[in-house]
Amino acid sequence: MQEGQITKALSGFYYITDDKGVTYQTRARGIFRKDGITPLVGDYVYFESDNLEEGTLVEIKPRKNELARPPIANVDTGVVVTSVVGPNFSDQLLDRFLVMLEYKNIDPIIYISKLDVVDEEIVEEIKTYQAVYEEIGYPVIALNVKEVEDLKEEIKKTFKNYFEDRLVVFIGQSGAGKSTLLNYLNPEFDLITAETSKSLGRGKHTTRHVELYPLLGGLFADTPGFSALTFAEIEKEEISSCFPEMRKISSQCKFRGCLHQNEPKCAVKDAVEEGLIAKFRYANYLQILTEIQNRKPMY
Ligand SMILES: Nc1nc2c(ncn2[C@@H]2O[C@H](COP(=O)(O)OP(=O)(O)OP(=O)(O)O)[C@@H](O)[C@H]2O)c(=O)[nH]1
Ligand SMILES: [Mg+2]
Ligand SMILES: [Zn+2]
Fold first, then answer.
1. Of 29, 107, 219, 284, which has the most beta carbons under 10 Å away?
2. How much is the pLDDT for 256?
3. Residue 5 and residue 289: Cα distance in Å, rounded?
4. From 145, 180, 192, 205, mutation site for ligand 1 pocket: most ligand atoms within 8 A of C-beta
5. Contact 212, 7 (CB under 8 A)
6. Ligand nearest to the CA of 271
7. What is residue 209's predicted lDDT score, i.e. its pLDDT?
8. Are 226 and 174 in contact (CB under 8 A)?
9. Is the CB of 205 under 6 A from ligand 1?
10. How do residues 36-62 score in pLDDT, each as one tens digit?
11. 3-class secondary structure per residue, the chain
């Protein structure tokens, strides 16, 4: 039996790359469909094949984690690509992405794009956000470099430290600049960006399938943009643990299982009052909490 990792899924085929870097085209055994199991890009698998085109995916090894959108498994790092214009910066949306990554045990990195096209005022505002997120412990990459060639160099230097031996996904709204960033990191990817898709006459969502690309000693996935995030799997008690600055102090709340909402003697609410936790982070927490509390029960 051979071993490898699924690096691409397209039209019912699974492309499995072994540790020599050879990629085999395979189909999944019928048993997967019967059991309702879908192999995912990122899965470590056993397969059989005596040529490059007609292999069989036999077994999936246990997953570290899995994402539904994009459909991908065993993710180590999530780069949340957030633009400051077209679409505008939204701390609400950023926090929703961060909560999702925290919930899946994926290390987040925040990348702010398009600083080259906005006024100094917005650049300053972003710096304030940057300080908050860095204090929480998240790396923030916000490069204010006008020349594209200089920007590319800076990006490569900055990201080098984060990718070795890691599976990295790029997530964020459509138009945020995920494909552009990946193209900057390696022009050989030649990923389709909004600009090129205009000339190809394609719609707004320019990225079609999930595929892993090797770069800087790691693997990357360029994924379609999406703006709506629901938290169908998350219970209300689990959300504050997805906010690292709340997770750290919630054991100091008077009541066990405190939701930091209306409970008395709440360490989180005190920390917000004292300015130790950012007001906007707490507001975004409450919003997600309320959403989950208002969720219709599933049977
Ligand atoms: N000025 C400027 N434009 C950028 C930057 N990053 C991306 N863009 C532009 O923003 C548009 C959208 O970028 P894409 O890379 O296609 O966005 P995406 O996140 O991959 O979008 P989807 O594939 O639809 O999810 C393109 O026209 C890019 O040229 C940046 O740092 N500066
Ligand atoms: Mg794209
Ligand atoms: Zn509390």
1. 219
2. 92
3. 36
4. 180
5. yes
6. 3
7. 75
8. yes
9. yes
10. 889 999 999 999 999 999 999 999 999
11. CEEEEEEEEECCEEEEECCCCCEEEEEECHHHHHHCCCCCECCEEEEECCCCCCEEEEEECCCCCEECCCCEECCCEEEEEEECCCCCCCHHHHHHHHHHHHHCCCEEEEEEECHHHCCHHHHHHHHHHHHHHHHHCCCEEECCCCCHHHHHHHHHHHHHHHHCCCEEEEECCCCCCHHHHHHHHCHHHCCCCHHHHHHHCCCCCCCCCCEEEEECCEEEEECCCCCCCCCCCCCHHHCHHHCHHHHCCHHHCCCCCCCCCCCCCCHHHHHHHCCCCCHHHHHHHHHHHHHHHCCCCCC
195 lines ligand 1 (CB under 6 A): yes
Q: Is the CB of 16 under 6 A from ligand 1?
A: no
Alpha carbon nearest to ligand 1 atom 3, residue: 114
Q: Which ligand is nearest to the CA of 142?
A: 1
Please name the residue whose Cα sits nearest to atom 30 of ligand 1: 114
pTM above 0.85, yes or no: yes
User: Does the C-beta of 117 come closer than 6 Å to ligand 1?
Assistant: yes
- Helix 178-185 crosses helix 148-163 at what angle (to 10 degrees)? 90
**Lowest mean pLDDT: which of 73-87, 101-115, 194-208?**
194-208
